[in-house]
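User: I want to check something. If I give you two sequences, will you return the structure for each one separately, not as a complex?

Assistant: Yes, each is folded on its own. Here is the first sequence with its structure:
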Amino acid sequence: MADRRLTKTLLRMARILLAVASLGAAAAQADTAEEVRAFMNDYLSTFDQGYSRDLAAHYDAPLYMLAPNGDLRAYETPKQIRRTVKKWKRHLLHNGFKRSDWVTLNVKPLGAGTALVSAVFDRFHDSGRLLQRGAATYTVHKKDGDWKIFLIHIHDPDDVVTFDCLAQARHWTIHFRTPRLSWVNKSVMFTAVLCLAITLTKNSADDFLYALPGWGANLGSTNATS
């Protein structure tokens, strides 16, 4: 009997330790995600308003760019990166570019010093009209205490990657209101519907939610915007 009680006690302790460890890991991931979001917002702001050398500081050398057709380009030195950035800015300004906005900014930490960012962005003309909607998935890492982009995978906006679908769904259920359903049933139903919609439409979770009339005002977005 004593052995059985001891076994149960040890199992309870093990469950508690596992729960504490998972909470610690989740908190660390959340901190990393917030750091990366802040970095990407600063990157977008610098892209719009900063000098080429300021924007180039957000990239690591070598910087790799992967096109949808599989074409891979490498910019080996900071000097090459600065030259390339100048060309990008010159081309955009020639076409009347004024500013950019994130439409979607999904972040997935892969550790304390590396993360994936999948984003959709809009670029606007000086007159306010939309110039371009584009998308890319970035690989970022921390180097000497600063976040840097070292791989940009350009792709179609419909192919933006939505990370942790179930986790996002659980977060959004706290904003969901249906009086006749229990909270458990709401969570299960909403998670299933949300994940199915994302899978079938290949849109981000925010695109799906804001497409539903009247829901945008009641649901908070987890995507960062500048």
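And separately, the second sequence with its own structure:
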Amino acid sequence: MHPATLHKAQVYLHMLDIENEIVIQSDFKLKGLFQDSNFRSRTIIQEAIAQDDLSNSGIAGMINATLTIWNDSISIWTERFWLKLADAQIPYSRKDPLVFVLHNGKFKSQGHAQDAKYNWDVLISSGLLRDRFSNEELSFISCVIGEDEQRRLKMLRRCLKTGRVPISSYRQFGENIAYFTRNRLLADYAYRGTLITSHFSEEEIQALDVAWQVQAV
């Protein structure tokens, strides 16, 4: 095995240690799946090193696969992961969804929009973003989050008014329902003793469900 490949494998194992530490501390709903994946990746690399059977492309592929979730999520745990990598001087390149927002004024994906809305208040209060973004940049991202939510709300309101979902908008409708559901905006809920009011009444939520089942002509 080439020394450079062995070094990459050792750095990757260190990254897996950091990932496992972050996942253990996290509130991830699929924490067990993360840990299983981490264990399998570690086992594969350790066996490949022991058998002197690891190529440069092989380790590169595993690094990219592991980093996918950390390059494609917005959360306090994502920030902590990348901070830990920096502290350990592990020079992996980050593809930051928030930087994409700054450059393009929109989210790259539905998942990014959901993550940002769901985790934004916690991220801001944690202070973890302030070393990477100015106050103006954070305000801009906040505005994009708000505008994205309003666009989604406008689309659902339009469907409520017509009582149907156009065939061309079925996917967007489903994504918007998922967005509001994850962010607990489809129903009132209590948060730390405070009642948070949703965008929709119970009757409107039922009407949305009916509209989704009506095929537009």
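Because they were folded independently, the notes below concern the second chain alone. The radius of gyration is 21 Å. The first helix runs from residue 3 to 25.
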